[in-house]
Design a protein that fits this description.
The protein contains 10 helices and 10 strands. The protein has a 6-stranded mixed β-sheet with strand order 6-7-8-3-9-10, with helices on both faces. Strands 2-1-4-5 form a 4-stranded antiparallel β-sheet, covered by helices on one side.
């Protein structure tokens, strides 16, 4: 479904990721994990068109997309939930969600998607007319994910959803993400909480200083002595 081939990307001409390759099959939940500063967010920004790769190719549904603008990729079904949530604080929860649906022409489809989003996130329905800034950190993360779902994506990319959340809220948001995956939406998540991210994923990739150093099924990575020593404190 998504193929990333040997991409190099960064900022102001300085590369942050080098020769990164991975692929995602339809319906999978894939985790890219690594420490803070490894380049995880740069990978998502490159896939979603926010930055252009210096080298390499990206294919989505058999079409090369690395030269397309970000808004075109949203129309094609790639939705990016950025690190730090970035909800519109002065706008209502409902208005935040409707911004996520701007690529959907059919009012019927928008209403249908909103109903499904409210089923997954009932707390947002209860508070739909409140300003987004009144939500807790965990609720704002849920709003960011819900907004990402409003464009009816084929692939949902989620960047560091655990950032700034208490452990109990991390578990809750991860469980919601797993539920979304089980409904057939392909998910690519990047996360520095290695164990939690791998436990819920089908497959994983370990990123270190801008390079993929190993990959495999989640079980293989969790049982890897290298991963245990470097990331799991074992």
């Amino acid at each position: 479904m998504l193929k990333v081939k040997n991409i190099k990307a960064g900022y102001d001409g300085v590369p942050v990721i080098f020769d990164v390759s991975f692929e995602i099959n339809e319906g999978e939940l894939i985790s890219i994990v690594g420490s803070n500063g490894a380049g995880k967010s740069t990978i998502l920004r490159t896939v979603s068109g926010l930055i252009k790769p210096m080298a390499g190719e990206i294919e989505f549904m058999g079409e090369r997309i690395d030269n397309l603008p970000a808004y075109e990729l949203v129309k094609r079904g790639i939705s990016h939930v950025p690190e730090g949530r970035h909800v519109f604080g002065k706008m209502s929860i409902l208005d935040n969600l409707m911004i996520g649906a701007y690529t959907i022409d059919s009012r019927e489809k928008v209403d249908e998607t909103l109903k499904e989003v409210y089923r997954i996130f009932p707390r947002l329905k209860e508070r739909e007319n409140q300003k987004a800034e009144t939500l807790s950190g965990g609720e704002q993360q849920m709003l960011a994910i819900a907004r990402g779902l409003m464009c009816r994506p084929k692939v949902l990319m989620v960047d560091e959803l655990s950032l700034g959340l208490m452990p109990i809220l991390v578990e809750k948001v991860l469980a919601i993400l797993k539920e979304i995956s089980q409904q057939g939406i392909t998910i690519l998540m990047v996360e520095q909480k290695v164990q939690e991210a791998l436990e819920m994923a089908d497959r994983g990739y370990i990123l270190q200083t801008g390079r993929i150093i190993t990959f495999g099924t989640s079980q293989e990575l969790l049982e890897s002595e290298e991963v245990k020593k470097a990331y799991l404190g074992m």
